[in-house]
Amino acid sequence: MKYLHLIWAALFRRKTRTILTLVSIIAAFLLFGMLDAVRTSFDQAGKSANGAERLQTGSKLSFIQTLPSSLELPISKVDGVKAVAYANWFGGAYQDPHNQIFSFAVSPNYLDLFPEIELAPGQRKAFDDTRTGVLVGEDLAAKYHWKVGDRLPLQSTIFPTRDGTKNWTFDIVGILHPKDKNAGGMFKQLILLHWKYFDESTPYNRGSVGWYVSRVSDVNQSDRVAKAIDAISANSDHETRTQTEQATAANYIKQLADIGLIVSSIMGAVFFTLMLLSGNTMMMAVRERTSELAVLKTIGFSSGSVLGMVLAESVLLLLIGGVIGLGIATLLIPVVAANSGLGLPPVGAGNWLLGITLMTVIGLVVGVIPAMRAMRLNIVDALAGR
Amino acid sequence: MILTILLSVYFWSVLAWWGALIVAVAIAVWMIMTRQGRQSASVTAVGVSTLRQRMGSSSVIVIGIAGVVGVLVALLAMGEGYSETLRKTGSADTAIVMRGASASEVMSVLERDNVVVIPQAAGIARDSEGKPIASPELVVAANLPLKGGTEDDVGSVQLRGIGEEAWKVRPNVKIIAGRKFKPGLHELMIGQGAEREFAGVQVGKQVKLGNDVWTVVGEFASGDALDSELWADANVVSDVFRRGGSRNSVTVKLTSPQAFDAFKATLEADPRLKVDVSTTLDYFSKQSEGTSKMIQGIGIAVGVIMAIGAIFGALNCMFAAVAARAREIATLRAIGFRGGPVVVAIMLETMLLALLGGVLGGLLAWLIFNGYTASTMAAGSVGKLSFEFSVTPALLWTGLKWALAIGFIGGLFPAMRAARLPVTTALREL
Q: pTM for the full model?
């Protein structure tokens, strides 16, 4: 640490070059921040403590097949199930059938199973009391400038109302927020309406349910409970498939795309280039400082400390650029997410940890050859300019 | 200055290949015909001949740009492959009829009485027996085990219940193994794309779909989105998935593409129906729009950020190259070479390295990703759509243009510095 000023001076000996290299590193880590945040958010879909306590039961046939609503009672009687809620896909669209919105018709107790969703108590009561009431996620409300009290016309792309049109009208009675301000979550993009109202208003549903959500009292019993739930309808014409919320989410994401593969191949290309780039900078830095390094050795610096100093210089270079890049990503993503309406995940502590590890490792890797060269420097030859 | 660069990059980005060719020819002519041009050519030759001594830093430019171009081309090839698969699906002379305001086929329900009325509309082609060629079809999702996964790893596949007419509205679908299913039996045909994705669905094998066991009796190939589907008898599918007499859509063969307007008008005027009509070509292209735009957006965003990194990398290397050759450049200027040729020479050198990088990156993307199969849950479908990355010449050209643009910006400032370097200081410099 006592050599920090020396390292710092060496780093900014050639300002242009260092700053140009820094910009490259910033760009790389900006990209890293964004992609890694996406990766972790996909990885962690449903992985929260609350998610682990929830089981989802859907039709074994396929994910669009419905289940009879009569299953609610037997599921709630399964040993280990604390509460059961259900939901149905509504297929809502706003203004244009192609402008689809995640919208579920849910049972009255649905929100009780999701303690991570926050809703003002008055709004919760208003939802319970209003047949046509809907709750909208905060991102969705912000995107379309909806507020509590608005009438919300929605088209359903699947279900007509009793009069044969597919135009539904709802009243917005509440806005859904995440309890943890930094957490992402699909419910920010979600509309919830009453299953009962939905079921009564469409001639097509006739008491069927898309999927059940059950909360288990003991997470370690999840597997047994899931098997017990599936056993209820085994060999019937509506066999079920029960999984933890996490498994369901993971399965769904896997069908969308292999995010991990795409992200890691991009990151591989980016970091390979980055290593080459900063390695080149360090080589140049050491080459043109040959005589200075020789002077350092002459006045008594050991070979080891010269090695350490050059390594520290390259790690410092990577850390400065990397922290700025990740910092920009951290600040930029919420802004982009708010303006574009895309559910971009925020950069979290885990991403920072991985990022800083990467910066250090890349710094050491690119610094090692120039540092070895500096260490092996023969004072006499170096001073003579040979 | 900055504005000029931005403008020229913009014009460059919309430039067609022949435009670039004209620019290249113009530069070549200038180099041969004018004195300044000949000077530039000789200075460039000197620079290029010493490239080998600056192997390390020149390869940084080449590989940096190759990385940008490779990633960009690969991502765009993914979007291209996806939309190409859906674009190839459907034709201008077939139309699909769905219930009004359905965003996609799976969300549509047509009751039996509608299914009966639709084939009577004007404009539908008739077969040799004089029957209208209209195919009412069911679309449901079914779960199948994925290839290379555990038993619990299931993926969704789109199962289409069809009748004999389905083959007539889609003459491009060929049977490549086995035979057609027999009506009334639990027999399936599988598309070649679905066969790649899912385990245990070879011809002759039995699979469980719904609560029933089905036999795979044939495999078909169409080269489009249908390749990812399973086909079975509509009545059997309807029984198993409890759909009654309803169907999702009716696909009809039109007498000609021009007959579409009349066909659409008859159906829309019919008070018994509330349906949306579009040509199948339109329908599938629209379905792909959102996703391919998104993939393209991601590709360009990632490309831009990487390009910024590469530009600064190139700047760095070229500044270093100029500094290393400061004396040489100053000498040239001292013996009478003007600034212009020096600028041109350094620009050309950078562009040459960039071109190499672009070619390398495009080549890598092509070698690794062309024909690489991926799959995703397609919009408007309930099954995995399998598609191939398609590295088209147009994408390679886009990649090359990006490379040259990066090289241009990365070379410009070092070149100008070289031209402005005071001769005396530069000569004194070590």
A: 0.81
